[in-house]
Amino acid sequence: MLYQLHELQRAFLTPLSGWAEASAKAYTDPYSLLAYTPFAKEAAAGYALLHRVGKDYEKPAWGLNETLIDQIHVPVIERTEINKPFCRLLKFERQLPKSLAKRDSDPTVLVFAPLSGHYPTLLRDTVRALLPDHNVYITEWKDARIVPVSDGAFHLDDYVAYCMEFIEFLGPNCHLISVCQPTVPVLAAVSLLASLKRTQPKSMTMMGGPIDTRKSPTKVNNLAEQRGHDWFKNNLIYSVPNRYPGSGRKVYPGFLQHTGFVAMNPDRHMKSHWDFYKDLVRGDLNDAEFHRQFYNEYNAVLDLPAEYYLETVKTVFQDHSLPLGTWTVEVDGKPMLVKPADIKTVRMLTIEGELDDISGSGQTEAAQGLCSGIAKDRKQHYVVESAGHYGIFSGRRWRETVCPTIKQFILKTK
Fold first, then answer.
1. Most buried in the list 5, 65, 86, 289, measured by CB within 10 Å?
2. How many CB atoms lie within 10 A of CB 225?
3. Nearest one of 346, 356, 348, 347 to 393, comparing CA atoms
């Protein structure tokens, strides 16, 4: 019922948001008399803020149409390599000119984006920085509300199976980068491939992920510990309304996740919106545009399949199945124990942000101990000073310190 109420709210806010957008333009258009009335800037800023609060945020575009390689602008196109019901493996194909033909042999990198609320485009800055020196692929997860019920359920085991399929598709020369949530299923996938003696990647980089949430627990971890499985099922799971292709599918709705994101730092978001209003009044359009771009991404959320979400909460945050060595995953119809110690040939880099309030200090580093079969000289841990969760994969610190570290790590991998 809550999902239906949310849809009714959207139906009410959409025309209101459109009216507010038109009003904001009327107070700034030089051909409009309203633009010359007293307090026109204040009125325009207020309407612009109202528009953004009420508007519906759709999936953002990647917008990565070119990259710069050796001072040459190289076009980039998106190409779907594998299309699964809940995810597509997307390649950012660099259209290299003949003068750069040798760069076709740049390392292949498979970026595992989170399936935890936001669209994979949240990693746009991650991909942008990797493109000049790598052949980049990424997992582009689909909004569960657009996946028909006839396509079946999506479990955590299915997520691991997708990871295994994508790794084997790209072959033994690929390098993995998992950001936040996927560090757990990706480590499971590589562990299972090692146990089965099947194709494994050259390296895996795990960034800000909940490998062992018992270490430096955060607000996110504490919530999962304090609430039982039934609470999550009864309070966060709803059916997709009739207007969507996934009608009837049980999901953890994106709008509820967004409410949770905002609730973690409400003062910060209130201040950001107030600053946006003041920037518009002052005519500081650059800062105002930065606000728009950030919240266009931050406010765009997708629905998660209910079974996947509930199993992730239980396996990762409540039972701690990976670090305790009790996690079994169904592979080819048979249950298999996830044993990271079986990984021996893959080089590993773990990265954490010093100020990460999503995945606390030591949670990602825990993979170092679990992967005891990897020689010490083939494992590396890096703490990004003064970086929060998003700072390790987006922004200045990512571009200037983290990405170069990963690049060197990949280049030295044999």
1. 86
2. 14
3. 356
CA–CA separation, 310 vs 396, rounded Å? 35
Max CA-CA distance within the chain? Answer: 74
Neighbours of 322 (CB within 10 A): 25
Instruction: Please report where in the chains the tokens 């509820």 appear, as a residue.
Output: 256
Give φ, ψ of 264 to 5 degrees. -70, -30
C-beta separation of 296 from 63 below 8 A: no
| Whole-model pTM over 0.90 | yes
Closest Cα to residue 158, out of 188, 181, 124, 136? 188
Secondary structure (3-state) at 250? strand
Phi, psi (5° rounding) for residue 296?
Answer: -60, -35
pLDDT score recorded for residue 248: 95
CB 220 within 8 A of CB 365: no
| Residues 56, 299: Cα–Cα separation, whole Å | 9
Beta-strand relationship, 72-83 and 87-94: antiparallel
Which residues face 248 on adjacent strands?
A: none
Tell me which residue has tokens 């504490």: 222
Amino acid at 256: L
The secondary structure of residue 99, as a DSSP letter, is G
Residue type for 143, please?
D
Q: β-strands 108-112, 174-179: how paired?
A: parallel
| CB neighbour list of residue 107: distance below 8 Å, 6 or more residues apart | 133, 134, 135, 173, 175, 410, 411
CB 25 within 8 A of CB 19: no
Q: How many residues does the chain have?
A: 414
Would you say the C-alpha torsion 66, 132, 368, 357 has a positive or negative sign?
negative
Give residue 360's pLDDT. Answer: 92
Phi/psi at 38 (nearest 5 deg)? Answer: -60, 145
d(CA 153, CA 310): 13
pLDDT at 14: 82
Cα separation, 309 vs 386, in Å, equals 31
Q: Which amino acid is at 197?
A: K
8 Å CB contact between 162 and 140 = no
